[in-house]
Amino acid sequence: MQEYLSLPPLAIASGQGGWLTDTEGRSYLDGNASVWTNVHGHNDPDLNAALQRQLSAVAHSSMLGLTHPVGAELAAELAALAPSGLGKVFFSDNGSGAVEIALKLSFQYWQLTGWPKKSGVIGLAGAYHGDTFGTMAVGDSGFFHERFRPWCFPAEHFPAPRCQEWNGKVRAADATASLAALRTLLTEQADTTACVILEPSVQGAAGMRLQPPGFVREVAALCRAHGVHLILDEVFVAFGRLGGMTVCGEEGVSPDFLCLAKGLTAGYLPLAATLVREEIHAEFLGSYESRRAFFHGHTFTGNPLAAAVALENIRKLRPLIAGPLRSRITWFGRLLDETFSAHPRVREVRQRGLAAALDLAPSRDSSAEFPVAQRVGLQVCLRAREHGLLLRPLGDSLLLVPPLCLNESELGELVHRTARALDDVLPN
User: Per residue, what are the HEC states of 392-407?
Assistant: First the structure.
């Protein structure tokens, strides 16, 4: 916090498209998509209109014992775009909440079906699922959550696969050891395991760590074979970020629980959803006194304003995914390849969809690291501000996560301004 307070403050006053403007009138390209949420840009007229239409009707009405048309319509829309079987939707406020709900539903399902010993969780090494205690417990975010470990329930983790990809090409991939470790855990512990939880395709907060194509299908098959639930945390990767509406849909996988947030409302308002298989939902049915109900709620669950924006976002996403998004992803990969694949200060490039990471190092050909106190990643991001670009570092990795609306010229600016900032801080 001392470092944070010592940095020059940057107050954002307005936004338009992929750009933000501060209170001093300086403009910045939003290379972080406002914490990975922005889809169609800031101040989008269609999203603004959807919000204003709903605002003229009702801003909020509880879904605790009530419902409202826009929330019901959104639930139906989410069930339709998800893989078959995920017909029930539980709304909440954020990604952490969506994951907590999935965990609790899995635990309660096994209790209701006579398997109370199935209470364990298996996650992926390096996983990040949120900052609430349940999500910290199933995550594996190192020092970020380590001090809170004594208050978290135990969870197992299996090693992540290796995969390097950019410009649409898998350069190296190996999931053998990862899948073997999961198979061993499930063989030994399936009777006491409720669920496996996974960020499919890309582990964003781990530094855009990629999984080989087909890895999610292999994990799903192991879960089915051993009778444990599969929770897919698509909070970051869904809604066009990797090119499709959902990763599970692209992979042909139907999980037991699907967690959605971030891009759901295109960066406008907090909203999350946990999609649940119909047969799981059926186990929660019964009389009040049976206590089978799922006792969980958020004050702003299914907020009508957020739901209205989410519906418009999905409507706008369909032609974007079917049309220009693929070419933008290809262009982004080509720019990264041309600019950084041989850069002397970039050890590794990883990119899938409109999500990329550049691992910085003193030399791309050695294992040496920068001293932690040097804060190289942060210094590059601060320098990027002087070039009119907003980025966030993860240690000494630069994460490039643009809004999906950026055109080829703006994606070029994102990459080239990043390179200029990097060369300013780490001259060759």
Answer: EEECCEEEECCCCCCC
For residue 91 the two structure tokens come to 């709304």
Contact assessment for residue 96 and residue 135, using Cβ atoms and an 8 Å cutoff:
yes
| Amino acid occupying residue 180 | A
**Torsion region of 274: left, alpha or beta (phi above 0 gives left; psi -120 to 50 gives alpha):** beta
Rounded distance, CA 86 to CA 277, Å? 4
**pLDDT at residue 389 above 90?**
yes
Q: pLDDT (tens digit, 9 = 90+) per residue, 331-381?
A: 999 999 999 999 999 999 999 999 999 999 999 988 999 999 999 999 999
Phi and psi (nearest 5°) for 99?
Answer: -70, -45
CA distance 159 to 215: 13
Asked if residue 122 lies in contact with residue 193, where contact means CB atoms within 8 angstroms, the answer is yes
Regarding pTM above 0.70, the answer is: yes
Q: Express each pLDDT in 205-257 by its tens digit.
A: 999 999 999 999 999 999 999 999 999 999 999 999 999 999 999 999 999 99
* Both structure tokens of 21: 């403007």
Which domains, and CATH codes, for the chain?
Answer: 2-30+324-425 (3.90.1150.10), 49-319 (3.40.640.10)
> Tokens 């759901």 sit at which residue?
264
Cα–Cα distance measured from residue 417 to residue 392, given in angstroms and rounded to the nearest whole number: 14
**How far, rounded to the nearest angstrom, does the alpha carbon of residue 47 sit from its chain's CA centroid?**
21
